[in-house]
Amino acid sequence: MRATLVALVAIAPCMLGGCRSMQGPVETRAYVVRPTPESRSALSQAVEKALDGNQIMIEGDALTRDGVLVVDRPQRRDPTALTAEGRDPAKPGATERFHLVKDGEHCVLIHDRTDRHYELIGTACAPL
Question: What is the pTM of this model?
Fold first, then answer.
């Protein structure tokens, strides 16, 4: 009984989140080091997916300085191109913020409002 109690006391910090070795790779803030047509396409697709399919113009040097991307959320339109009314979790015209992290060998774009992660295939990034 005493040995079991001692073992539990020894592993309790790990069970409460104190052991880093049990966690996966740590996400590190990052920036794009060599933008390519493939990396720009991956970024555009991730942002469009995050914003419910809305197309956004993204500059060619996006995420190359500080790993942060801020875009204006477009207003939703109906099939006749008129502004659509209805339920939308974000205000139309509001800004959306994303940041880039390096997770192991992967470059991952994180949508700050939703905390959704999008891996940017074919993108080279480095820690800030």
Answer: 0.69
